[in-house]
DNA sequence: GGGAACACTTGACGTTGGTCAACTCATCTA
DNA sequence: TAGATGAGTTGACCAACGTCAAGTGTTCCC
C-alpha cells in the first residue's frame, strides 16, 4: 500500500534508460513483437522500469496518466471504486500485457486504480513522448489500434456476461479462461487469492464460495487453490461459452 | 425484421459512390472532421449508404464484418444475445456515431447484432479497403485510435456501473446522460421506448417501471416519454456521478 | 507453544431484481 | 363501434445475491 516502497530500477547506459535484458523482454511482447527493432528502440528511449512490492499502489483512480504501462513481471489488478465504498476488480493483468492505453491517449483521469497483486516490474513509456510517437509512427499506431480493438471486444463480452449470466456462470467462464485445453479434464491452479477472484467475477467472497459449491454439480472440485475440472466441454456448455454466436 | 427491406441509396457519379450531400454529412462528423478533405474523399471512395426501416436487422451476432458503419440518420441498437434466450442492449447509437470498428479491424465475428431502432441511413466503409487505409494513412489511424479510446473508457464505466450500482442508480445515470444541463431542473424526452431503455439499463421492463417510481423520491417524475428532473445535482449525487474520482 | 491476523467457509436472514399474471390504456383495424 | 394488439404498470411470489455473524483452518510472529 506504500507508494514509497517502489524503486526505480534503471541503469542508463547508451542514452537509453532500459537495461538490455529489459529491452529484449519488451521486444518479445506479443504487443510489440511486430515492430521493427529500430522503431522499438526509438519508442523506448525514454522508457523506465519500476519495481513494486505486493499491494503497492501503482496509480489511483482520478490521477492524470503520465505514462503507458506494461507488466514485465508479476500481476497487476485494475480496481474501480465508487463513492459509497464499493470496489471491484475490472481487470487482472499478467506479464506481457499493456494497460491504460486509452487514458494515456485521451489524457483523461484514470477510471481505475492499479495495484500490484504480486511483486511486479512495470515498464513506463512516458505519455507525452508516447502520444507523439503514435501520431508520427504509423506502424505503432496500427499495432496499438489492433491491440486496443481486441481489448475492446473482451470488454464487450464482459458487459454481456455481467448483464446476462449468473455468478456461477461467470465463475465458470473465469475458470475456462485459466485452462489451455479445450477438451477432457484438467486441473488448474488459481493464480490469485479467492477474494481477488471474487472481485474479478463481480461478487462477494461469500458468494464466490457458494458459486464454487454450486459448480460441484458441473464436475468442478476445489481444493485450496487447485481446481479440478472433470469435463471442460460440459463446463463450457454450462456457461454457454462460444454459443454467443447464434 | 426483414433484411430485404433495406435499400441501397447510392448514386455513383464521379467514380465516387456517395452523393455530395452524404459526403458533406460525413465531413461534418466529429469522428472525421479533423481529417483533410482529400483524405476524407479517399477513404470514402468505396463507401455506400443503405437505408433501413424501423426494426430492420443490420447484421447479426456471429456474422463476419464486411464494413465499418456510421449512423448518418436514425438510431441503431447493438444487442448481445446468449444461447438460453437472454438478450440485452449493449449500446444505442445516434446520428454521427461510428460502430463496430473493433470487429472490422480484428476481422472477428460480431459480438452483437445491430438493429435499426428508427428508420436509419447507414454509411458503410468496406472492411478490406478500410483496413488498408488505416494501415497506410497515419492520420486516419490516429483518429481511429482516439475515437476507440474514448469508446473504450465508456465501456469501462459501464462495467463499473453494472458491478457496483443498483438498477435505479443506473437509470438515473442514463437520465443524466440525456440532459444537457448540469444544474437546476429540466425536462427530457425519452428517445426510445421504455422496453429499449430497460434493455439498455440492464433490467426487465417491470423493474424499469419500479426504478422510475423509486426515483420519485429523488425528484424524478415520469409522464409518458417526458421525464421531469427537479434537481439535477441531487440526482447526480444519488448515483455518485462524477464522484468516481476519489 | 500461544495467540494474533488473515483467508476462507457456512449458516441465517434481508434486499434486489426476475417471473408470472392481471390489468389499464392507447392505437390500429375490421 | 367492437375487438385486437402492444406498451406499460402493478401485485404476488421467487430466486439470486448481499450482509452479518460465527466458526475453521493456516500462517506468522513473539
Automatic annotation (TrEMBL), chains A, B:
Domain of life: Bacteria
Chain coiled-coil ranges: none
Domain HTH crp-type, chain residue ranges per copy: 165-233
GO cellular component, one term: cytosol
GO molecular function, one term: DNA-binding transcription factor activity
Annotated ranges, domain Cyclic nucleotide-binding: 31-151
Keywords, comma-separated and alphabetical: DNA-binding, Transcription, Transcription regulation
PANTHER family cross-referenced by the UniProt entry: CRP FAMILY TRANSCRIPTIONAL REGULATORY PROTEIN, HTH-TYPE TRANSCRIPTIONAL REGULATOR ARCR
Name of this chain's protein: cAMP-binding protein
Organism ancestry: Bacteria, Pseudomonadati, Pseudomonadota, Alphaproteobacteria, Rhodospirillales
Amino acid at each position: 500500500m506504500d507508494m514509497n516502497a517502489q524503486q526505480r530500477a534503471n541503469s542508463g547506459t547508451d542514452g537509453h534508460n532500459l537495461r538490455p535484458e529489459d529491452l529484449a523482454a519488451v521486444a518479445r511482447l506479443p504487443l510489440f513483437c511486430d515492430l521493427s527493432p529500430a522503431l522499438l528502440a526509438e519508442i523506448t528511449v525514454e522508457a523506465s522500469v519500476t519495481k513494486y512490492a505486493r499491494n503497492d499502489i501503482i496509480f489511483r483512480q482520478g490521477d492524470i496518466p503520465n505514462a503507458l504501462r506494461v507488466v514485465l513481471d508479476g500481476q497487476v489488478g485494475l480496481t474501480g471504486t465508487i463513492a459509497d465504498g464499493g470496489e471491484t476488480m475490472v481487470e487482472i493483468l499478467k506479464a506481457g500485457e499493456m494497460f491504460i492505453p486509452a487514458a494515456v491517449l485521451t489524457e483523461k483521469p484514470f477510471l481505475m486504480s492499479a495495484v500490484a497483486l504480486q511483486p511486479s516490474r512495470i515498464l513506463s513509456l512516458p505519455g507525452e513522448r508516447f502520444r507523439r510517437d503514435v501520431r508520427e509512427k504509423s506502424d505503432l499506431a496500427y499495432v496499438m489500434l489492433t491491440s486496443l480493438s481486441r481489448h475492446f471486444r473482451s470488454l464487450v463480452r464482459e458487459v454481456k456476461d455481467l448483464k446476462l449470466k449468473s455468478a456461477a456462470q461467470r465463475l465458470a467462464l473465469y475458470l475456462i479462461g485459466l485452462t489451455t485445453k479445450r477438451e477432457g479434464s484438467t486441473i488448474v491452479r488459481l493464480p490469485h487469492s479467492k477474494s481477488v477472484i471474487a472481485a474479478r467475477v463481480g461478487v462477494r467472497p461469500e458468494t464466490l464460495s457458494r458459486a464454487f459449491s454450486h459448480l460441484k454439480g458441473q464436475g468442478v472440485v476445489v481444493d485450496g487453490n487447485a481446481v479440478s475440472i472433470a469435463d471442460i466441454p460440459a463446463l463450457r456448455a454450462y456457461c454457454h461459452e462460444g454459443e454467443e454466436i447464434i
